[in-house]
Amino acid sequence: MFVADGGKSGLVNIGNTCFFNAILQCLSHIRPLGEVFGNEAKLSSLLNTHSKALGSHGLIAQAYGRLLRDLWQPARMTPVRPADFKRAISRRNRRFMGYDQQDAPEFLEFLLDELHEDVNRVGEKPYAADRAWANFHRRDDSPVVDLFQGQLRSRVCCPTCSKVSVIFDPFRSLALPLPRPRTPCTGQEASAAVGLHTAYELLAKPEVLSHDNQWYCNRCKEHRQAIKELAVWRLPPILVVHFKRFAHGASRLRVTSATTQITYPERLHLDDASGQGRDYRLRGVVCHRGTLYYGHYVAYARHAVTGDWYYYDDDTCRRVSDDSYLGHRGAYLLFYEEDCSVQN
Ligand SMILES: [Zn+2]
């Protein structure tokens, strides 16, 4: 691509695009960069087009490669029109969609970041998850961790520049959100039951961060109401599920779903975001009644030897002969143990 009579064409200004024309021209003369992106065969061998990749799935890298080849056409007499390239970056970042003058250093940072992610060798990132997991285990390693520790992936996306940041956090109980109860005009709460699987899916629903909980985007250099997306990346052998019946409001703790009925199965199959499934069997249920401050807790547990279910209410204990442990209205925490006897 790099020839003596190439690289001498201008770039058409297609509406206040001088900020990126200037950047592109400088970059186009940086040989090691051009040797990667301008070489079609080499680029396609490096492209990170995996569906979970962080970049543009090759969109920007390829558009940039085409632009470079245009700029380096031997003895080209006419300027290059970067419309195709501009369309590509506009699709990734709405800020570049219009014809407003933009900040060149910001654009450079954006472009390099996009190019980097498109050829990122790490992909997204079972590797990063494993590294976070190994780091965690370097500091915390015990039988409790072996049994209860799972891993959450949290993905935050900037609504302005599309910058994505991914972090992995350990958990020992999985807090699941509940849909907000609908209150009909009668003043009584709607009593539609919510299934455990529904709450598990609700956890993964993208959420726009509230105005007072903004995320600092290090590309925009500003706080943004980013879009946050959680996923369970690794399920533990003992899964403790905690339903968020109580939520922190702006000023104080409030009850949001205290009486929402939750249904949950005795035998549970869940898949995590890395594609692994586990089969569980219910071992215990903690139930809550009343308000947060004046409530009462009772428990059901499956006997560790006999396998019978028992009901525990402070100083009383009785055997349960039906399946009432599956239907308590105040179920708050569930204890599931992996059932290795289930064959896939
Ligand atoms: Zn941003």
UniProtKB/TrEMBL annotation:
GO terms of molecular function: cysteine-type deubiquitinase activity
Assigned keywords, A-Z: Hydrolase, Protease, Thiol protease, Ubl conjugation pathway
Cross-referenced SUPFAM superfamilies: Cysteine proteinases
USP domain: residues covered: 9-339
EC class of the enzyme, as a word: hydrolase
Catalytic activity from the UniProt record: Thiol-dependent hydrolysis of ester, thioester, amide, peptide and isopeptide bonds formed by the C-terminal Gly of ubiquitin (a 76-residue protein attached to proteins as an intracellular targeting signal)
EC number: 3.4.19.12
Claim: Aminoacyl-tRNA synthetase is one of the keywords in the record: no
GO biological process, one term: proteolysis
Claim: Hydrolase is one of the keywords in the record: yes
Family that this chain belongs to: Belongs to the peptidase C19 family.
PANTHER family noted in UniProt: UBIQUITIN CARBOXYL-TERMINAL HYDROLASE
Name of the protein in its database record: ubiquitinyl hydrolase 1
The organism's taxonomic lineage, starting at the top: Eukaryota, Choanoflagellata, Craspedida, Salpingoecidae, Monosiga
